[in-house]
Fold each of these.
Amino acid sequence: MDAHLKAIVDQFATRGTVSEIRPLGEGLINDTLLVRTAEADAPDYALQRINTNVFPDVDMLMGNIHAVTTHIRKKLEERGTPDIDRRVLTFVPLREDAQKLYTTVDGDPWRLMVFIANAVTKQAVNPESSEAAGRAFGEFQAMLADIPVQLGETIKDFHNMEFRLQQLQEVIRQDPVGRVAKVQPIIDELLAHADEMTLAERLGREGKLPKRICHCDTKVNNMMFDHDDNVLCVIDLDTVMPNFIFSDYGDFLRTAANLTAEDDPDLSHVGFRMDIFRAFTRGYIASAKAFLTPTERELLPYAATLFPYMQAVRFLWDYISGDKYWKCRYEEHNLDRVRNQLALYRSACACKDEMAAFVAEC
Ligand code: GN1
Ligand code: MG
């Protein structure tokens, strides 16, 4: 076992004897390790190094996460929900300071959470699990509607479409690695839709669209399921922050309703699945209807097109920057991601009327 990692784990107030530490999962941002304990009655843990390039303000980040997890835990307790330790993440404090949820080692912040037992993550969904996911994310927003503290923006302007477009235009002007000429047709196509895709920011400024506490990374694999396909809880809480609800609704569909993975280079595989759209939308509206305004509801189809568009803009920004943000496994990996998300955007746009009709029926 890696003695350096073991020493980090030992700083946290864990139970049991560490028997194994090994890599876990495939997150693109943070590095995660599974920490196993020998005793049957001690939990296993997940150790995570926080990527400070992405999350520079670790105090704000862990403050948000603490507020969110304790608020949800309290709600679940009030409702008498069984098995609470599998229904919300538990972060382990340091032995020497029970108020601190992370430690800094050689400049890197590390945190430890209880690993949820007998649970699985999924990389793909079917209509049944999408409906469950819609309910779970709507429920997550509903439970946080009355959180008594103001959460910080862990990534400033994270899902702000106006900002993402400015960021793209800035790097196009600089063209730091000479990739702009090659992608000019893609740039032109994306910019042609800039006005219609920045509708949310305009409505926000006009006071017609509220910000609520959102998860902001509602991918299929950011949820734990039990072995009967029931959603246990929502994980990966780094991006929980105030945003338009479209973040959670649209970003889920971006991954779940795509016929293929976001980096599949074969564009004939890409397409927007209306069966997943209908299932997820049904589940989401069922648990979110108590707080959704008519404008939010009406704009759900816009949100379904917004997130493939935004992700295409973000991947293109990173490609033109020289692949600094997302891990790439080969030279044109980011460009394949851009093309894929643009194809998904086109496919979602073609379904917009059908989406609107379905939302109106719900
Ligand atoms: C990042 O780390 P991961 O895979 O959960 C990104 C998301 C993107 C996603 C695209 C903080 O999420 O916004 O949609 O990659 N998270 C951050 O794969 O930028
Ligand atoms: Mg993740």
Amino acid sequence: MADQYTDVDPNAFKDEVLAKYPAKLAKKRAKQFVVNKVEDGDQVPEILANTRTTPGILTMRGCSYAGCKGVVLGPTRDVLQITHGPIGCGFYSWLTRRNQTRPETPESVNFMPYAMSTDLQEDEIIFGGEKKLKAAIDEAVALFHPKAIGIFSTCPVGLIGDDVHAVAREMEEKYPDINIFGFSCEGYKGVSQSAGHHVANNKVFTDVVGLDDTPKKGKFRFNILGEYNIGGDAFEIERVAEKCGLTIHSTFSGNSTYEEFISAHTADLNTIMCHRSINYLAEMMEKKFGIPWFKINFIGAESSAKSLRKIAAFFGDKGLIEQTEKVIEEEMAKVNAVREEIKARCQGKTVALFVGGSRAHHYQELFAEIGMRTVAAGYEFAHRDDYEGRKVIPDIVVDADSRNIEELKVEKDATRYKPRRTDEELAKMEADGFALRDYEGMMKDMDEKTLIIDDMNHYELEKLLEVYKPDIICAGIKEKYVVQKQGIPMKQLHSYDYMGPFAGFEGAINFYKEIDRLVHSKVFKMTKAPWESSPELSASYGWNG
Ligand code: CFM
């Protein structure tokens, strides 16, 4: 059935795309290419996710090292981070994501402007790189006197068998005042950067969180997990939280410091922005320290308001709740003034989003606020729970790749386990509709007959552009120019191109304006791809056609 935004029959489109593949691949992709249907409020079709990309396919994915060093730890300014590996790994994970930070004073420690690496050469690949790593740590200590050093493993480190953990232990004995820890996040671990998130969560949990029991000042203290300050998002969230009277104890890891990490277990609540990258840490902190967690989302003005209300309701303080309402009213007035005008122009336009493991969901809300509809969305590396909701976790099949990443056994801390709410209180909150420890996933929020595509590749993206002709595509740098050459505007949702923030209320205003500008720009339609004037450059995808 055609709907008001597109005449494309999603099932026919799916068949057309899969028809190009060899039979075995088509069978697999058919499970990762789903036409949405929501039944009984939250029952959605099953999707195949977090499995290996078929060799030869141009995937949008990144590697485990990227997920660990680039994503989870990268935005922390005062943990000195050494990439143990060839120089390219360190260089390409250095600031391309546009994670920002704001040291307290100009003199405060900030390692972000540096890309530190052991710069492995052929010699070390043959004879081992541990000596060079130790020398790098000596040099780093002499130059920077950091409180903490993280060592990040790249593919060759695993292949040649360097033991970064043994080096970390040895160097910690040499420098007892410095916390030195290594990550086994070799790029090939797991099937995507998602594996690196898990490796990072585990190490941060065992070697960092809980080292200092001093709480920050502030009455309503909570942590934000999975917010990485891309384009200044964290600054906007901090502004709004402060206005409400909330204290963000630590953010993992946008605009963060090591001191905030080590005392994060003293906060009373963990909120999760990006479920995919950091849900492990929230679960482990709840088990060990008794800190409850729930999902929030500061992408979208409405979602921001909802998240603030939920946090205020958790603390349950009358003054806080009133102040939060006041802030929301003030901020929404500014947002609505811009939104109405832009919505009138953008209403009915379509978008397709293909981003990592959470933004393809979060940004649909921002688009909806200006009347734009998501016709297709997908993740590069999310798991079934990010699509279908956490209720499917018990049914997720563990395979050789996912077994590769250690699941830590976590016990209650003997002295510091302190439930912030009693079991009865938590049960009552849940009975009152207050979702704890939950994430309902992306598909439930998407319309009937929209497309959900896991680990999309460039061939499928090109087909989608051709058939759906969305008004704008949101993805990453690997997709950007392919899309623009087809005359379609493209917004990078990883790095935000050159902009931001897009979170919170001011972020929403920035985003509306940017999308309005992009979807109404004529320039993209004026570009001619090289093959349009030189047909000999054109090519088609191989296999059976
Ligand atoms: Fe989480 Fe992220 Fe994302 Fe992610 Fe990423 Fe990112 Fe992303 Mo790029 S942590 S899953 S590994 S929200 S770097 S800030 S934009 S793919 S959708």
